[in-house]
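Issue 218. Parser rejects a valid record. Input:
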Amino acid sequence: MQIEHYLKQFQAIIETCPTVQTFNIAYDKRSTYEGFIRGEIVFVDDSVLHLREFVDAETDIDRLTYVYQYMNAEQRLIFRYDNTGHHRKLNLATYPHHKHAGSEENVEASPAPDLAAVLDEIQTCITLPL
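Output the parser choked on:
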């Protein structure tokens, strides 16, 4: 798959999410198959997802690095998924993939989610005003 196809799919996932208010995503095509994605998505409750992915789509979708950091409207961490290799000592079964839940210190094993899974999880967190 060429990287352009992945980037189109990525944007379509965002555009079809019913709780997205606005988004600003930058795409940097590095080669025919590699690209870097960076941006933020603002939701209807003013919470924000900051994201980064470095993707190789030559044979399969391989997200070489990723970060999905979800913050509430007061800029407090709700969760962050990433594959930064800084928690080796925790012996996580999914290392280097992990999730920070509610704080930097609360680290748990987690398989690597994709953007659609992260958006689904965020939708369960959003409370709309009455």
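Fixed in the parser; the record now loads. The helical segments are 3-15, 115-125.
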